[in-house]
Design brief:
By secondary structure, the protein is mainly α. It contains eight helices and no strands. It starts with 10 loop residues before the first helix and ends in a 6-residue tail after the last helix.
Length: 153
């Protein structure tokens, strides 16, 4: 797999533990008190992650994940758009996504799913991943559909 397709070192690996604990506390408090003005914390979080965040991202997170996972998802950089992605690379990512789904590595699963979504003009990447077909068949179908896809702006 090309270097650009590898899962990046996350901001959580780069941050000192005290800052990481502060971010965890912000997320937890935003979830518990979403009506408070969190603009300063959200701005600082945006500077750390390079992404725009809203309080609603963190409200009721416990219904679908735990705090540690949400922090990892929040601190994972945005994936790139790779226009020259090959069928073999799509196949490798399909395998990775399935592995990460099975092992509960939500941050990596979401990263690669979003990378495929950005790189292939497909709106239903998850449907392909969960189709029950082999990784080779899935990648072949995705690349074929992407080549025949027309996006109207």
């Amino acid at each position: 797999m090309r270097k650009i397709l590898e899962f990046p070192e996350t901001n959580s690996q780069l941050l000192e533990s005290q800052k990481l604990e502060t971010i965890k506390q912000w997320i937890k408090c935003m979830a518990e008190d979403p009506n408070r003005d969190w603009s300063q914390e959200l701005e600082e979080l945006g500077l750390i992650t390079g992404k725009h965040h809203t309080v609603m991202e963190f409200v009721e997170y416990w219904e679908w994940t735990d705090l540690e996972t949400l922090v990892r998802l929040t601190l994972t950089p945005e994936p790139p758009c790779i226009r020259d992605i090959s069928q073999k690379e799509v196949e490798e990512m399909v395998l990775l996504i399935r592995e990460y789904m099975a092992t509960g590595q939500d941050d990596k699963e979401k990263y690669y799913r979003e990378l495929l979504h950005k790189s292939l003009p497909l709106t239903n990447v998850t449907d392909y991943i969960l189709s029950g077909k082999t990784a080779i068949e899935t990648a072949e179908a995705m690349v074929k559909a992407a080549k025949g896809s027309i996006i109207i702006l």
